[in-house]
Write a structure and sequence with these properties.
Domain DDE Tnp4: 156-308
Cofactor: a divalent metal cation
Order of helices and strands: HHHHHHHHEEEHHEEHHHH
Shape: globular
Strand order of the largest sheet: 3-2-1-4-5
GO cellular component, one term: nucleus
Structural class: alpha/beta
Number of strands: 5
Organism: Parnassius mnemosyne
Distance between the termini: 92 Å
Largest sheet: 5 strands, mixed
Radius of gyration: 24 Å
Protein name: DDE Tnp4 domain-containing protein
Length: 363
């Protein structure tokens, strides 16, 4: 009996070694230059040129190859891109013929690449809110040219990214749609570029609270002698710098026309979420990130970095189907009307009334 068990154990070890050798052999045969361009973009969402630029940025940030048969940095990046893009659990990623590897190896690659994409200088390079008047004026002008609404520096909203049940502080992540999530706040410009993102709050946190704690709010409130607006839905409190819809506005009244235009411009953030999640499907609410909240938040930031790289490079991503759009809408948590202090609300109403009057004069 003991001899039989030893033979079985030896056979299993040999089988594992053979699988490892086969994976290594297939990886060594991988030559990304042989992958057709359309297939490359379809698998990894980046063009070959943009992939090379990404490698220049983050390969120095990856752990050095420890062994002769260790995973090449470029293959680690391809593995992570494939996971972000497919949104399927990492075991299926590891079985793809363009980079076969064990699930544990896929997980390690994903962790390393995600950490690299979250390096502070990488985030600052690719995701930055306009910091001076000239930068703000460029964004304002683009919004005005497209929609005729002045002084807009961004649109803001939150979107839920599903995660598995956390082992700690589970109640912070359980949202009103009864699943666990990260409530991710995003600000975008008229080109669908993400200028600010916060993926540190659980799904139980309201949109208005995330905005109240956001450094961008303090930044906008500190601007002197300059009119700037973010556009948000009624889940945000009306402020001098936050333009929200007018409640119960009559159609074809000045307020009704303002609401129509405000909503039309604000659809920019909805399109941004659609493009972001259509390209990086691991973020779809119908799926789950099988990671702790901190790691899930880093994956969200990594996808936002890659989103901006693709937008700037003019690379189109796969669109969500109508069924996927409907699934996203069903899984997103509806906003709750934000409470507001009287003095700040009055200042916001004055600013919004001035904007409505300006729009009426320019009709």
């Amino acid at each position: 009996m003991a001899t039989r068990q030893l033979l079985i154990a030896a056979a299993l070890r040999e089988e594992r070694l053979e699988r490892r050798r086969n994976r290594r052999r297939l990886r060594n045969q991988l030559n990304i230059s042989n992958i057709p361009d359309l297939e490359f973009v379809g698998n990894y969402r980046l063009s070959r040129e943009l992939f090379e630029e990404l490698c220049q940025d983050i390969v120095p940030l990856l752990p050095p190859k420890g062994r002769r048969h260790g995973i090449e940095p470029t293959l680690k990046i391809l593995t992570a891109l494939n996971f972000y893009a497919r949104g399927s659990y990492q075991g299926s990623v590891g079985q793809n013929m363009d980079g076969p590897m064990a699930q544990q190896t896929v997980s390690r690659c994903l962790q390393e690449v995600t950490t690299a994409l979250n390096a502070p200088h990488i985030l600052r390079k690719h995701i930055r809110f306009p910091q001076n008047r000239n930068e703000r004026n460029l964004i304002k002008q683009k919004f005005y040219d497209k929609y005729g609404l002045p002084a807009v520096v961004g649109c803001i909203d939150c979107s839920h990214v599903a995660i598995v049940r956390p082992s700690e502080h589970e109640e912070r992540y359980f949202n009103r749609k009864h699943f666990h999530s990260i409530n991710t706040q995003v600000i975008c410009d008229s080109d669908l570029l993400i200028t600010n993102v916060d993926a540190s709050y659980g799904g139980a946190t309201h949109d208005a609270y995330i905005w109240r704690e956001c450094e961008i709010r303090n930044h906008l409130e500190g601007l002197q002698d300059e009119t700037v607006y973010l556009l948000g839905d009624s889940g945000y409190a009306l402020r001098e710098h936050m333009m929200t819809p007018v409640d119960n506005a009559v159609e074809n009244s000045p307020e009704g026309r303002y609401n129509y235009l405000q909503k039309r411009v604000r659809c920019t953030i909805e399109r941004t979420f659609g493009v972001l999640k259509g390209r990086w499907r691991c973020l779809l609410a119908a799926r789950e990130l099988h990671y702790c909240p901190e790691t899930a938040g880093k994956i969200i930031l990594a996808c936002c970095v890659l989103h901006n790289m693709c937008i700037r490079a003019g690379i189109e991503g796969p669109e969500l189907t109508e069924e996927e759009h409907q699934s996203e809408r069903t899984r997103q948590v509806p906003f709750e009307t934000a409470a507001s202090s009287t003095q700040a609300l009055q200042a916001g109403r004055r600013a919004r009334n001035s904007l409505i009057q300006m729009l009426e004069r320019n009709r």
